[in-house]
Amino acid sequence: MKEAKAKLREIESKIKELESRGKPVPQSLLDEKARAEIDVYMSRYYEDAVELARLITEWSASLGEANGHRFVVCSGGGPGIMEAANKGAYKARGLSIGLNISLPYEQKPNQYITEELNFEFHYFFMRKFWFIYPAKALVIFPGGYGTLDELFEVLTLLQTRKIKKKMLVLIYGSEYWKKIVNFDAMVEYGVIDKDDLKLFRFVDTPIEAFEYLKNELTKHYL
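RESULT FIELD:
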């Protein structure tokens, strides 16, 4: 977030300088400013993911190990939001898992994954299996095609009851997601049932997400 804000301030400074000298501001610079504003807006999700992972990890540690009930944060192992999840667990001095994927372009595991819990997959389908099979909850932060792929596969498996266990699905950032996916329109056009909207829940703050997860995980798994 600091880097994104610093870049925006730098661009705004350039614009002010041009305006003070009575010179026109190039469209390219205005476009750069608009992009930087989006980056600042999106960067808050990184901080939120760090905080949520920290809260979950600290709560998990408080449960103790006597009954074997512990919850471990798992991410895709890469940068961005994936890194944020592992970082939050790291800040809480807990374990965290990274399920990396080998890609044509370089993607290194982030530095916050517990070393012995860092895994790399060649196939996406196998990676998704290990995301889902041991999971008790899924928190979907804003993302692109890969995130959508994972979200809709889980929702399909829940809808068709291929997943029989209780799986909590939280979609984080309602403003973003309601622009990206119009779930209500899917109901309107009859491609999903209204009850399918109960397969997930929108959340907008780390504490809201944490309290829901804590209560539901306690109810179903402790």
